[in-house]
Design brief:
This protein is an alpha/beta fold. It folds into two domains: 180 residues, 3-Layer(aba) Sandwich (Rossmann fold), CATH 3.40.50; 61 residues, no CATH class. The chain is built from ten helices and ten strands. A hairpin with a 2-residue loop joins β1 and β2. 37% of the residues are buried. The structure holds adenosine-5'-triphosphate and magnesium ion. The site of adenosine-5'-triphosphate has 12 residues, from β2 and α1. Magnesium ion binds next to α1.
Length: 252
């Protein structure tokens, strides 16, 4: 469903993504690992349209998306979460979720005058959907809480909730397990598996190897901007190139 070909992203003289190619099959959970600074987040940002590719091609569901603005890629069903969650702190958890769907009638000024009833009906529907998503993630007790009062782990879940509001086809998760306690991590893993069972696809950056090993197949390994390996998790665990990359060795 996602095809990345010879993708390069440079920042000044630095090649953060250095000729990366891979493709994701539908209904898979793919892991993306690699040492700090390997270029994982840069790869995500370039796929999601935050950065323009320096060169290379990206297509999603058969349509080229390289260089499109983020909202177009989002609208096509490819959404990402952030390594550091970015909720609207002064809004409640429920409001944060309701912010997400693009093109709600209420956002367009004139609709407030000419179609109040329709706006109210749409808002009710989105509120109901937000409640369902929050219940699915066991976040419903926090629906009325301000997002800024959530713990780091709860904010990770809220990120996932907001992403689900967009009804995506492919979700890019940047370190969903970072700073999350083991109980909440188990909840996140369980919910991702449930979504996968419903047909959702994921590409997951994560340093937590337990999460990668229990959820992801295949696993992509990046080092110094390059993709050095794509393999099943068990093979990744025992491949000397991966160990080398983490110990700072130069990839072959
Ligand atoms: N916006 C930017 N401008 C300039 N350089 C950047 C930018 N974003 C990332 N870089 C550089 O690109 C390289 C790859 O960074 P990136 O954040 O993609 O790594 P990462 O694999 O996500 O690391 P981590 O596991 O620590 O999150 C780093 O050298 C980083 O300093
Ligand atoms: Mg990163």
């Amino acid at each position: 469903m996602l095809e990345v070909r010879d993708l390069v992203k440079e920042f000044g003289g630095l090649r953060a993504v250095d000729g990366v190619s891979f493709s994701l099959r539908p209904n898979t959970i793919t892991g993306l690992i690699g040492p700090n600074g390997a270029g994982k987040t840069s790869l995500f940002d370039t796929i999601a349209g935050v950065h323009r590719p320096t060169s290379g091609a990206i297509s999603f569901l058969g349509t080229p998306i390289g260089g499109l603005p983020p909202h177009r890629i989002f609208g096509a069903g490819l959404v990402r979460t952030f390594q550091i969650p970015r909720p609207f702190g002064g809004m409640t958890v429920l409001e944060n979720c309701m912010m997400v769907p693009a093109g709600q009638a209420g956002e367009r000024f004139w609709n407030n005058w000419v179609a109040r009833a329709r706006v109210r009906a749409e808002e009710r529907a989105w509120r109901e959907k937000a409640r369902q998503v929050l219940a699915f993630l066991s976040l419903e007790p926090l629906a009325g809480e301000y997002a800024k009062n959530l713990s780091g782990g709860q904010q990770k879940l809220l990120e996932l909730a907001r992403v689900l509001m967009a009804e995506p086809r492919l979700i890019l998760l940047d370190e969903p397990g970072a700073g999350v306690n083991p109980t909440l991590l188990a909840t996140i893993v369980d919910r991702l598996q449930a979504l996968h069972a419903q047909g959702m696809s994921f590409l997951i950056i994560e340093h937590n190897m337990d999460l990668i090993m229990s959820l992801c197949d295949p696993v992509l390994v990046m080092a110094q901007g390059r993709l050095i390996l794509e393999a099943p998790p068990a093979q990744v665990r025992s491949d000397p190139r991966v160990l080398d990359a983490y110990l700072g060795g130069v990839p072959a």
